[in-house]
Amino acid sequence: MHIELSKDKRYYSIGEVAKAFNVNASLIRFWDSEFDILKPKKNAKGNRMFTPEDITNLQLIYHLVKERGFTLDGAKTHLKEGQKKTLDKFEIIRKLETIKTQLTEIKNEL
């Protein structure tokens, strides 16, 4: 799971977010109601509009729940107790994955 954040785009619709994470929009709505770190804006119609910061937080939630197998309560506790530490580790993992992908592409071109 990887979502490319556009430097020009300030908000992402719930449909875009759900598609990027390959999950149902209902799961994104559920996580929004469960996790305080998510703070999407709502447009005039009441639709959630996610900021790049929300996307980063969703990536972290996705990582904890879907990839590491945390329960929702476990993920909430983990985020509250060590959010900065967890976010730093998560960012390092994502950067290393990007480097690995780039190196693999270079290797394949040789």
UniProtKB/TrEMBL annotation:
Alphabetical keyword list: DNA-binding
Pfam families: MerR_1
Organism from which the protein derives: Flavobacterium hercynium
GO MF entries: DNA binding; DNA-binding transcription factor activity
InterPro entries in the cross-refs: DNA-bd_dom_put_sf, MerR-type_HTH_dom, MerR_fam
Name of this chain's protein: Transcriptional regulator
Residue ranges of domain HTH merR-type in the record: 11-81
Coiled coil (UniProt feature): none
Keyword DNA-binding among UniProt keywords: yes
Keyword DNA-binding carried by entry: yes
Gene3D superfamilies: 1.10.1660.10
